[in-house]
Amino acid sequence: MSVGTIAVNTFRETIRDRILYSLLMFAILLIGLSYFIAELSLGDFERVVINVGLACVHIFGAIIAIFVGITLVSKEVDKKTIYAIVSKPVSRFAFLIGKFSGLSVTIFLTNLAMTSGLILTTFVQSGHIRMEILFVALMIYLELLILTAVAMLFSSFTTTTLSAIFTLSIFFIGHLSPDLKYFGERAETLLGKYLPLAVYYILPNLENFNFKNVAVYGVHLDAGKIGYVFLYFFFYLVLLIFISNFIFSKRDFK
């Protein structure tokens, strides 16, 4: 069994999930409704549509990445199919890479569907296509891949419920990282100073992938920052997969 075979099987398995389609349809419906929300609001209608639409792409993408990602390994363990898989000539690292790759394709397609819905809604509302939305959606996709890797890491050694709790915590803390650094640098006690800073430097700072102002307010893109974000993404992705493989390879399925 190769990585490609595992990835294809994982992709087929995830796209058969009815919950996935329910979340996707609900997200696209909300993005379409942002057109009417903008009409009822004061100010720049186009910005309201883009703001609400990108929030939907981000939040529903995170829900899909987390709640599908936490079942990547635990489902195989619960169904006892993991025993048949590990008995075949395939390494556990290849198994994890295949699982991650299959879900990455599913998340890419759902992200693309929601982004296409947003671009269409923006075009109907304003009469022109905002290509910046594609770039912001790409950054959201990178964040979702980090979340998927986090979910897979927890899924490799604990239950589905605990994996969901831990991954959701990483999602919220990851978006509070700049605030944690701010308070840590100004705290007067040792615990208040070093605990937030430790969390800031150890856990992924998901705000690095937040480029919504580029599409909403037309903020200029900094090539250096984009390069840093890609390096940051690859560093954490490789680190998370390495830790997942280390833990998963130590588990006894005999």
Describe this structure in words.
This protein has 254 residues and is mainly alpha-helical. Helix content is 81%, strand content 0%. It contains 11 helices and no strands. The chain has helices at 3-15, 18-40, 45-69, 71-78, 81-86, 92-126, 132-155, 160-186, 190-202, 212-216, 223-250. Helix 3 packs parallel to helix 7 (132-155). It is globular. The two termini are 19 Å apart.
Tally of individual helices: 11
Anisotropy-based shape: globular
What is the number of E strands? 0
Rg, please? 20 Å
Percentage of residues assigned to helices: over 70%
Strand content: under 5%
Instruction: Please summarize the sheet with the most strands.
Output: none
Low-confidence stretches: none
In whole angstroms, the N-to-C terminal distance is 19 Å
Rounded mean pLDDT is: 87
Class from helix and strand fractions: mainly alpha
SSE pattern, N- to C-terminal = HHHHHHHHHHH
